[in-house]
Specification:
The chain is mainly beta. The chain folds into 3 domains: 142 residues, Immunoglobulin-like (Sandwich), CATH 2.60.40; 198 residues, Cupredoxins -  blue copper proteins (Immunoglobulin-like); 116 residues, Sandwich (Immunoglobulin-like). It contains 7 helices and 31 strands. The protein binds copper (II) ion.
């Protein structure tokens, strides 16, 4: 049944029906190439990675009902492994470097095949810090409904970019941390924003120091980036997408940044948020939406009329921004400034508390509640979960069929976008306030905040649970959820 449907969808004649031969399988696969390439960033060449689909562009788009049948060909020059963020495959196809599923050597291919969840997803390397160097791309899975509507779709993939390599960036963090006096609510961020590497030509750092977000005692933006990208371009030369006047557009925002939360600013365009992390929510109207690292937002846009409409993503706590432009035919597109007039607030849970899942989990009591303490030692730049740092963490054990609640309390002064692999969880409480919140795969836990998530243990295996700030994860902020009887 599945096979024939897939073959019909692939539109490929001559595929032997029911032939389960690996060869036939490979021919139906989409090819994804992990590569190394040169990207021009504000006129300067940068060596980056890439995940390039069959059309020669970053990422993959799947048709309704199509399986995720992908052969990943590693031509990156180094070993890699790619995680299909938010998708729910069996654990050995999750793209995490477990001992059972090690990274793929350069020059080697690996095939994946599972039924994907429709919606806005993405993919990124889970090997070392390759994600920072753009080993990350969109993964869009259409369903019959989105395909039937002839609404124009625009993908907006965000990145933070540095000409330094991630090891240098990490070295700068641990060194700065070491020079600090230590203590909570420290001035670490100010130090970080003001210091050395601000040769970036984006002189917004000091502007933001007085903003509300910074005064609260929390820390934003560990790293001083050289640029922020939308679909791999800066506002010096942004993507300009032609749209018909009065047309509706489905904007699929993906925060693929390694260490940056943004605010989406629709400007004069009104928006209706209809999904987060690929899962439908009751619509929320607005023109500004926070988006934490690794999260996605699907927003229906209504253009007010003919003209050019920039859609911005502004860095929390800063004036720096990136974006793209929607323009009706013949509209004059003026140059967009890559800094805003006013620094953005810290990304917070103002949106999260107003979200309601359209298909929530069935009401049920928790079989197991796992407390998770998010900790940080800023003086050494070490981040921990329940006092442990990856890989020195004991697995959190669960059993198939359980309703699992994870009760996350942040005891540090930075927010942490927490991501669970292999499951869609529901946000069920924020700071003790119960809610029938969104289904997600990544949720922000603000400084000193508490967020409870629930999920059904329906996908046995070993699953990573970690902060999606790359530098926090690499400094220890990761653990494992493991099903009993899985080795
Ligand atoms: Cu974190």
């Amino acid at each position: 049944m599945r096979l024939s449907r897939r073959n019909v969808l692939a539109g490929t004649a001559g595929l032997g029906l029911l032939s389960a031969m690996p060869r036939a399988q490979a021919q139906a696969d989409q090819r994804l190439t992990a590569t190394s390439r040169i990207l021009d960033v504000n006129g300067k060449p940068a060596k980056v990675f890439g995940l390039i689909g069959p059309d020669g562009r970053p990422g993959l788009t799947l048709k309704p009902g199509e399986r995720f049948a992908v052969t990943l060909n590693n031509q990156s020059g180094t070993e890699t492994i790619v995680h299909w963020h938010g998708q729910l495959p069996d654990w050995k196809q999750d793209g995490f470097p477990w001992p059972q599923t090690p990274a793929i050597a350069n020059g080697v291919e690996k095939s994946y095949n599972f039924a994907p969840v429709p919606g806005t997803f993405w993919m990124h390397s889970h090997q070392g810090m390759q994600e920072q160097q753009l080993m990350a791309a969109p993964l869009i899975v259409h369903d019959a409904a989105t395909e039937a509507s002839d609404m124009q779709e625009v993908v907006m993939m965000l990145h933070d970019f540095s000409f330094k390599n991630p090891d240098e960036l990490m070295g700068g963090l641990t060194k700065k941390g070491g020079m600090m006096s230590g203590g909570m609510g420290s001035m670490n961020m100010s130090g970080s924003n003001m210091s050395g590497s601000s040769m970036s030509g984006m002189n917004m750092g000091s502007m933001s120091m007085g903003s509300g977000g910074m005064m609260s005692g929390s820390d934003l933006n560990d790293i001083d980036y050289d640029a922020y990208l939308t679909n791999e371009r800066t506002l010096a030369d942004p993507q300009i997408t032609r749209v018909a006047a009065g047309q509706n557009v489905r904007l699929r925002v993906i925060n693929g940044a390694s260490s940056t939360n943004f605010w989406i600013d629709l400007g004069a365009v009104s928006g209706r948020l209809i999904a987060v992390d690929g899962h439908d929510v009751k619509p929320v109207t607005g023109s500004q939406f926070p988006i934490a690292m690794a999260q996605r937002l699907d927003i229906l846009l209504k253009l007010p009329g003919a003209g050019a409409y920039p859609i911005f993503a502004q860095v929390e706590g800063k004036t720096a921004r990136t974006g793209l432009v929607l323009a009706t035919p013949g509209a004059n597109v003026s140059k967009q400034d890559d800094t805003a007039m006013v620094a953005a607030n810290a990304a917070d849970l103002s949106l999260e508390t107003s979200l309601t899942a359209t298909k929530p989990l069935m009401a049920r009591n928790a079989d197991i509640t796992i407390p998770l303490r998010l900790g940080g030692d800023m003086s050494q730049y070490i981040w921990s979960l329940n006092g442990s740092t990856w890989p020195n963490a004991d697995a959190l054990m669960i059993k198939p069929g359980q309703r699992v609640v994870i009760d996350m309390t942040n005891h540090s002064m930075m927010s942490h976008p927490m991501h669970l692999h292999g499951h869609a969880f529901q946000v069920v409480a924020i700071n003790g306030q119960a809610l029938n919140g969104a289904l997600r795969d990544t949720v922000l836990v603000p400084p000193m905040g508490n967020v409870r998530i629930a999920f059904d243990a329906n996908n046995p295996g070993r699953w990573a649970l970690h902060c999606h700030n790359l530098y926090h994860m690499m400094s220890g902020m990761m653990t494992e959820i493991r099903y009993a009887n899985v080795v």
